[in-house]
Design goal:
The complex is a heterotetramer of chains A (428), B (241), C (329) and D (289). Chain A has 428 residues and is an alpha/beta fold. Chain A is built from 13 helices and 12 strands. In chain A, the strands form 2 sheets. Chain A has a 7-stranded mixed beta sheet with strand order 7-6-8-9-10-11-12, with helices on both faces. In chain A, strands 2-1-3-4-5 form a 5-stranded parallel beta sheet, with helices on both faces. In chain A, helix 6 links the parallel strand 6 and strand 7. In chain A, helix 3 runs parallel beside helix 4. Chain B has 241 residues and is of the alpha/beta class. Chain B has 9 helices and 10 strands. In chain B, a hairpin with a 2-residue loop joins strand 4 and strand 5. The longest helix of chain B has 16 residues. Chain B is globular, with a radius of gyration of 18 Å. Chain C has 14 helices and 2 strands; from the N terminus they run αααααβααααβααααα. Chain C has a two-stranded antiparallel ribbon. In chain C, helix 6 crosses helix 7. With 289 residues, chain D is mostly helical. Chain D has one domain: ABC transporter involved in vitamin B12 uptake, BtuC. Chain D contains 12 helices and 2 strands. In chain D, strand 1 and strand 2 form a beta hairpin. The N and C termini of chain D lie far apart (39 Å). Classes of the chains: A alpha/beta (428), B alpha/beta (241), C mainly alpha (329), D mainly alpha (289). Chains A and C meet through helix 1, helix 2, strand 2, helix 3 and helix 4 of A and helix 1, helix 2, helix 6 and helix 12 of C.
Chain lengths: 428, 241, 329, 289
């Protein structure tokens, strides 16, 4: 009886396969090295995915064409020298922000598109399954995003991460906090955290709690809210009642905006207000106007960050897209360079060779637009030690000042003087 | 020993007494008629006996054991089966399947239940329609199927709610023969019926309900000459009848 | 039913079964194998749903809760106590069966729409609880620890999907056989009777509540099985991916599209819609954001309009007539 | 715990509750009369929200100005959906297809929004008219919230008036109580159905357009509102207008107080659990007949 359905399976698949083959005509072109790009191009995070894509496209353009005066690898040359100037091509897939889809699509990239490596990734949950497949199929996977701590704690041999994981982020928060306390002779104690109740949010929260405990701060409220909540009245009232000195809010832009509005509504201003990625979204400042002033934000990147290469790339990007380069664009920007460099040193497209080359990756500060001394990876180590985590990365702390994002910490790299403590709503 | 004993059964819906202190009892192998004008409370009484309504007060004994508050499926398990006034069967199942549902009560295994269903459909003369869907049967056949489903549970007592409604005289005679056959197979019958002619012809005893009360009891002769009954009901019905 | 058609059907059944058996060797690309695996997984879900929604008339939108319970139970047992997933699968199944029975108490009085809403609430309760329960990883979800070498015992295979393909196929076949066996047994007759008219069913000695419970329990059990498979297959689960209204709705829509209360209908629905969604998604890539599910939604609406009883209705003639002879014999 | 906090919670609960009631009111009408749960209700709400947003972002005027357009548009849309989809499905005796068809619509609309407007979260941030916060003696609220609450009360008032006073209204109630009898009494129930459906969905246009001010709109925004609306309607009793308001406010309160005193993460959990508990006692809701 069940074969009745199978009959239709067959039919469905036949035409389906017809479609697909038609759909993905892979015109064989010599001297092209195909690399897979996994990003959420539909679903709630699609806009961010699109920004990531821009960054990667720009990077590929720089690799494949001459960009005199850029200190980035392969800027001066066309394509990848050791492979006779072969061009890099990214085949993008849409993981829809769904781990299961990520799994299937990465697999398709590796087995059908025959890519030599995977780069990209946004949500940690998708990177988790994506990198898992890559590991199984012995294909390198380099993610520029994915700050979840345990991504690199799985001892995967083929997975590499560029971004600073949320542990480092938490550390940066408190380093900056204590640095500023020292400067102003203040001492804060009570910490409140509101985090979106997702993989991303709760990992950050965990790291913050650990860090706070280690440094003798007291967590008086740690409040999960569902991402893209329709109202956070309760959450904010809870925070207001707790009267924290330091307030962390972890979430994407819809929540950042909602929280700012609601905090204002309830006239709630903690002396220190740290925000996360959401506050850096291009929508945040236009949405809240001057109400955003004074929020401190952990930053992986800033276009005017005092580093020549960063500023140059920032200009190129601005010329091309009319907008200032921002974090989503930057996060995956380096991934094509890292893989291209590895392929170049490996001198072949053999995945194992590439993997070994990746382990020897060494980018200097001016080969890398991100803050920090460069890019190199920790060796393969048993959990809970980190495997293939970028050691060369470091964090910035940014602040919204007069509706512009400025770097305020580390002090030597700052683009503006910090506003302290957080201004009252009336004074913004 | 009495098969079924009804003791002062009262069923009240709000202010309305659907049944009021009704008592009677039935012994093995009888065919009982339950008559009365519309709204006399006949079907309500059936529902009380078969466990769809708990009686407000009074008691119902089956084979000397109380069944007053047991749910329909338990009452059925005790050996009381019923049919419904409006045609009720499983439209999207075949005749045999319909009866198998009933047969499963005594025969857990499909094969046995199936054989039982075959026997019953033989008995109710529906064998030629065994594999038709119930929805494809004619109303008389559907009534017969209802009877068959009830019989398939192998009841001791079978309660029929107007099995002859809307049948032609010829069909009625067939049904009457069928009922006699059922009685001869050792099943006790209670028949709710409008058509006095039918009731008179097969019932040994008749109870007459009116406005929820039992107004008369006796064999067809006595009933036919009972004053109250004639007033309440019978006269006009005979005239039509 | 003429003999010619009989043979046609029999032979096509044979061809198809063979096709399914050798499929992974015809289509080596993992993506095609993945699609089929998804077909089998959703197939089992849909069949289990059909038992509950199609036969016992309980239109559950909380079905992915059972799926999630299965996925979580086996994974938690593996992570915390190192218990092998196969055992976890059974335990998960039983656990979700129990949950099913428990949830059926507050909802026992509800019918149709009312029941549907209640199951929605149930779904969210489960999800919220898992999202905040540290022991099961809360919102961070759980990664199934990877074993170095592929092993049947630990239900993990690297490099090739083929083992997953046959395992899920096996589970599906088992599930379908079990369900069909139940449906054709006394219970099945009772469920169908209940669906048609609870009143009459009772008068024939059927304990309505009891058989509803049986249906829920079995249905929840099967759903949980495919949940465990999912966890072992994807090796990572978190509340949004394991317990989502999305899955529930997909399962219901698929079953209705195929034709409920038939077991074959839901299978048919899955076999058509799952590849459709996956292929459209893959084909259009990022460009076709949302289109796959636009088609999905439209297809469902159209089906409800032109054939409320589902696609299977068009195959009614396709029955092998042996049923009657078997029974008559 | 000082009094102002309690009062504050009460106010927040009330405002959000009235908002929910505003969303649920149409649902309960449709449900009562056609006996269809409109699972696409949330998506229709999202349409209204997009109306509000684009009026603001494209025309640069207050999003509340979109109200008449949105109401009319949704009314017509609702009528069309009823005529060409729902009414046909109602004819088939297959209940499941009746339940599922609106789910199909919802999936379709959601994906359509995604296709047209991307998954972006959009919000109306400085509406020229509806802006600013309200503070009365240490109790805080915001103008948009106050306005939605007022709108909600107005809508409910008029719906009630319509049902109680007009012939159509009475006919609708008659239909919801007993379709057959209503037909016998010469009421064109089919017409009543389509009117109710149009009306019920048009209601969303009133509150929907100002929602992007207090929260944000994305293809997925409708879904949580819808789920809460379902529970509210189920709690309040199907087709009972008063029940819906009360249930809405109750849910608002439960969510706020539960969220504050139990755990913000559990604010919806409290709602759903309450609902499941009520089911055991009153399967057809607190005020259901």
């Amino acid at each position: 009886m069940k074969s009745k359905m199978s009959c239709l399976t067959m039919v469905a698949l036949m035409c389906a396969i017809g479609i697909l083959n038609f759909g993905t005509v892979s015109y064989a072109q010599d001297k092209v090295i195909k690399v897979g790009g996994e990003l959420p191009l539909s679903g709630p995070t699609a806009p961010t995915g699109a920004l990531n894509k821009r960054g990667m496209d720009l990077a590929v353009d720089i690799i494949n064409n001459k960009y005199p005066g850029l200190t980035l690898p392969f800027a001066e040359t066309e394509g990848i020298p050791n492979l006779g100037g072969a061009k890099l091509e990214i085949v993008y897939v849409d993981d829809r922000g769904d781990p299961n889809v990520a799994l299937a699509e990465v697999e398709r990239l590796i087995q059908q598109e025959k890519v030599v490596a995977i780069i990209g990734g946004w949500q940690s949950s998708c990177i988790k399954t994506g990198s898992m497949v890559a590991e199984r199929l012995k294909t390198p996977y380099i993610s520029g995003a994915g700050s979840s701590v345990d991504l690199t704690k799985r001892g995967l041999r083929y997975y590499f991460r560029l971004i600073a994981h949320s542990g480092k982020v938490a550390r940066a928060y408190f380093d900056s906090l204590q640095a500023m306390e020292k400067r102003l002779g203040e001492k804060y104690k009570k910490v409140a955290v509101a985090y979106e109740n997702t993989e991303y949010g709760s990992v950050c929260n965990e790291q913050l709690e650990n860090e706070a405990k280690n440094r003798g701060y007291e967590i008086i409220a740690s409040i999960p809210f569902d991402s893209t909540a329709i109202s956070v009245n309760v959450e904010v009232q809870k925070i207001k009642a707790a009267k924290p000195d330091v307030f962390f809010q972890i979430g994407y832009d819809p929540d950042a905006i909602l929280f700012t509005k609601t905090m204002k509504k309830f006239g709630c201003t903690p002396p220190v207000w740290y925000g996360m990625a959401g506050y850096l979204s291009p929508k945040y400042i236009p949405s809240v106007g001057k109400d955003g002033n004074g929020v401190l934000i952990s930053g992986w990147f800033h276009p005017r960050f005092s580093k020549p290469v960063t500023q140059k790339v920032g200009e190129i990007y601005k010329k091309r897209y009319g907008k200032a380069m921002n974090i989503p664009v930057a996060l995956n920007f380096m991934t094509p360079f890292v893989i291209a460099d590895a392929i170049n040193r490996a001198g072949s497209t053999d995945k194992e060779a590439i993997r070994e080359a990746l382990e020897k990756t060494r980018f200097t500060a001016d080969q890398n637009i991100m803050p920090g001394p460069g890019i190199w990876f920790t060796p393969v180590q048993p959990p809970p030690k980190h495997t293939h985590d970028n050691e060369g990365v470091s964090m910035l702390v940014l602040q919204i000042i007069d509706q512009k994002v400025e770097v305020v910490w580390p002090f030597d790299g700052k683009t503006a003087e910090i506003i302290w403590p957080h201004p009252k709503w009336s004074e913004k | 020993m009495k098969l079924l004993e009804i003791k002062n059964v009262t069923k009240r819906f709000g202010g309305l007494f659907a049944n009021n202190r009704i008592s009677f009892d039935i012994s093995q192998g009888e065919i009982i008629g339950l008559v009365g004008p519309n709204g006399a409370g006949k079907t309500t009484l059936f529902n009380c006996i078969s466990g769809y309504y708990p009686p407000t007060s009074g008691n119902i004994l089956f084979e000397g054991r109380e069944i007053k508050n047991s749910p329909p499926y338990k009452v059925c398990a005790r050996g009381i089966a019923r049919t419904f006034q409006i045609i009720e069967n499983f439209q999207k199942m075949t005749v045999l399947e319909n009866m198998m549902v009933g047969a499963f009560k005594k025969h857990k295994y499909k094969g046995k239940a199936f054989k039982k269903a075959l026997k019953v459909s033989e008995f109710i003369e529906l064998s030629d329609k065994n594999f038709e869907y119930a929805s494809d049967l004619s109303p008389p056949e559907q009534r017969r199927l209802g009877l068959g489903m009830a019989l398939a549970t192998e009841p001791k007592l079978l309660m029929l709610d107007e099995v002859m409604a809307g049948l032609t005289p010829k069909e009625i005679d067939e049904v009457l023969d069928l009922l006699r056959k059922v009685r001869d197979s050792g099943v006790t019958l209670i028949v709710i019926e409008h058509l006095m002619r039918a009731v008179m012809s097969i019932c040994e005893r008749i109870f007459v309900l009116d406005y929820g009360e039992k107004i008369a009891e006796g064999n067809p002769e006595e009933i036919a000459h009972d004053e109250k009954v004639i007033q309440a009901y019978l006269g006009k019905s005979y005239a039509q009848g | 039913m003429n003999v010619k058609k009989e043979n046609l059907i029999r032979s096509s059944l044979l061809v198809i079964s063979v096709f399914i058996l050798i499929y992974p060797f015809l289509f080596k690309a993992a993506f095609y194998q993945h699609i089929m695996i998804m077909v089998f997984m959703y197939g089992l879900l849909a069949v289990s749903w059909d038992l509950m929604g199609g036969y016992a008339n309980m239109f559950s939108f909380g079905h992915s809760a059972f799926f999630g319970i299965g996925a979580y139970t086996s994974t938690v047992m593996l992570i915390h106590w190192g218990i092998n997933p196969w055992i976890g699968m059974i335990v998960g199944g039983c656990l979700s069966g129990i949950v099913g029975v428990l949830i059926s108490y507050p909802t026992s009085k509800l019918r149709g729409h009312y029941f549907a809403i209640a199951t929605l609430a149930f779904l969210f309760v489960t999800k919220i609880l898992l999202e905040n329960w540290r022991f099961v990883g809360a919102a961070q979800g759980l990664s199934v620890p990877m074993v170095k070498e592929s092993s049947l015992l630990y239900f993990q295979f690297h490099g090739s999907k083929i083992p997953y393909y046959y395992i899920m196929l096996g589970l599906l076949v088992l599930g379908v056989v079990l369900t069909k066996w139940v449906i054709r047994s006394r219970i099945g007759y009772y469920l169908r009777a209940l669906r048609e008219s609870p009143e009459v069913a009772q008068s024939l000695g059927i304990n309505t509540a009891k058989y509803r419970l049986i249906a829920i329990a079995l249905s929840a059990f099967l759903a949980a099985i495919s949940g465990t498979f999912y966890a072992q297959y994807v090796l990572y689960i978190d509340p949004p991916s394991a317990i989502s209204l999305h899955i529930s709705v997909q399962v219901v829509l698929i079953s209705v599209f195929g034709g409920t209360g038939t077991i074959n209908g839901p299978l048919l629905g899955t076999a058509i819609l799952i590849p459709l969604i996956n292929l459209i998604g893959a084909w259009l890539g990022g460009a076709g954001r949302g289109i796959a599910f636009m088609v999905f939604g439209a297809v469902i609406v159209v089906m409800c309009l032109i054939q409320p009883d589902g696609l299977i209705k068009y195959f009614e003639g396709w029955k092998l007539s042996n049923r009657r002879e078997n029974e008559a014999a | 715990m000082d009094a102002t906090v309690i009062i504050q919670l009460f106010v927040s609960g009330l405002t959000v509750g009235l908002l929910y009631a505003l969303v649920a009111i149409g649902l309960t009408l449709i449900w009562g009369v056609t006996d269809i749960i409109n699972f696409a209700h949330g998506e229709f709400l999202v349409i209204a929200m997009y109306f509000g947003f684009f009026t603001y972002s494209l025309l640069g005027v207050s999003s509340i100005l979109a109200m008449p357009v949105a109401v009319v548009f949704l009314g017509v849309l609702g009528w069309i959906v009823y005529r060409y989809v729902i009414s046909r499905v109602l004819k088939s005796e297959n209940i499941l297809s009746q339940i599922v068809v609106t789910f199909g619509i919802s999936v379709f609309l959601q994906s359509l929004f995604l296709f047209l407007f991307t998954g972006d979260y959009r919000s109306v941030d400085n509406d020229p008219w509806i802006k600013g916060d309200v503070q009365v003696g240490g109790i805080f609220s915001s103008t948009p919230e106050v306005i939605t609450s007022i709108l909600s009360l107005v809508v409910i008032f008029f719906i009630n008036l319509f049902i109680k006073k007009t012939y159509t209204g009475k006919a609708i109630i008659a239909t919801s109580l007993d379709r057959e009898t209503a037909q016998l009494m010469g009421i064109n129930t089919e017409r009543m159905n389509s009117i109710t459906f149009a009306l019920g969905i048009a209601c969303l246009g009133v509150g929907g357009v100002v929602l992007p001010i207090t929260t944000h709109v994305s293809p997925y925004s409708g879904f949580l509102f819808a789920v809460l609306a379902f529970t509210i309607v189920a709690l309040g009793g199907f087709g009972s207008v008063v029940g819906t308001i009360l249930a809405g406010v109750i849910v608002g309160m439960i969510q706020t107080f539960g969220g504050f005193f139990v755990e913000p993460a559990y604010k919806y959990l409290c709602v759903f659990v309450l609902y499941l508990l009520v089911l055991m006692v009153r399967p057809k809701g607190i005020f259901g007949w």
